[in-house]
Design a protein that fits this description.
three-stranded mixed beta sheet, 14% strand, DUF4504, single chain, alpha/beta
Length: 252
């Protein structure tokens, strides 16, 4: 994305926020700017919006914001709002399709920490656990929502269950929703996979929490009783920071 496009993106973003009267704190507005740029530039296929209010008002504001942005600039053409239960995300449709495809073709290896065990144990999808297989089924459903042109069925790993719905029915569901809203909560139905696990996969976390809906209390206990080492990545916008300037947190 060129500098002019970045400036246009931020200009449209500010105008849209003002038009729909979505009043954000300065810190939340800054996060929205960073998240929108990350998705528009395809640096990230999806970002989680956990600021700017609570559901369902957050969903209403985010959809209204994106609808106006899409009217003003084609830069936002590939962006959508995605909802999974009580979580809400901003996604880039094409980048999401590529990410889901790479997940199913094992280009992106997932590492899990099994929080049902005490102490927690590291696992991979090769362990063939029930939760792992159900997560793969969810990924296959995502591949129907986000089809990748030219992707063949034989690119999918063997020994994995077929998707739980056909592409026609999913297309009808999407068509019945808002032009910018995709509610994929149904992908979680009839599985023991929890939102934190799906969230970890979507956001590309290096380690994904793994626990079933029947073991939420065990997971909370095992997390709360273990030492946690936190790493931060801080960035500065200038090569020689001023005395009063503070580095910004990029990732934790």
């Amino acid at each position: 994305m060129e500098v002019a496009e970045v400036e246009e993106t931020l200009k449209v973003l500010d105008a849209s926020l003002s038009l729909i009267k979505w009043r954000l704190k300065s810190s939340s507005k800054r996060r929205l700017q960073i998240d929108v740029l990350a998705v528009c530039t395809r640096m990230r296929p999806v970002v989680m919006i956990d600021y700017g209010g609570k559901m369902p008002e957050l969903q209403e504001n985010l959809c209204a914001f994106l609808e106006h942005c899409r009217k003003e600039s084609t830069i936002f053409e590939q962006l959508r709002v995605m909802v999974i239960e009580d979580m809400i995300y901003l996604i880039h449709v094409k980048e999401m399709a590529e990410y889901v495809s790479s997940s199913l073709s094992s280009e992106v290896e997932l590492l899990f920490v099994d929080l049902e065990q005490d102490p927690p144990k590291m696992r991979t999808l090769d362990d063939k656990s029930l939760l792992g297989m159900q997560l793969i089924s969810i990924q296959k459903l995502f591949s129907l929502y986000f089809p990748l042109e030219g992707m063949r069925n034989d690119l999918l790993p063997p020994d994995r269950a077929e998707p739980m719905a056909d592409s026609k029915s999913l297309s009808e569901q999407i068509g019945s929703q808002s032009s910018v809203l995709m509610d994929l909560s149904s992908c979680m139905h009839d599985t023991e996979v929890t939102v934190p696990t799906v969230n970890g996969w979507l956001l590309g976390y290096p380690i994904v929490y793994l626990f079933s809906k029947d073991h939420i209390e065990d997971a909370i206990y095992n997390l709360s009783t273990k030492f946690l080492r936190i790493y931060k990545i801080l960035v500065s916008r200038t090569s020689a920071p001023n005395k009063g300037s503070q580095p910004e947190e990029l990732m934790r």
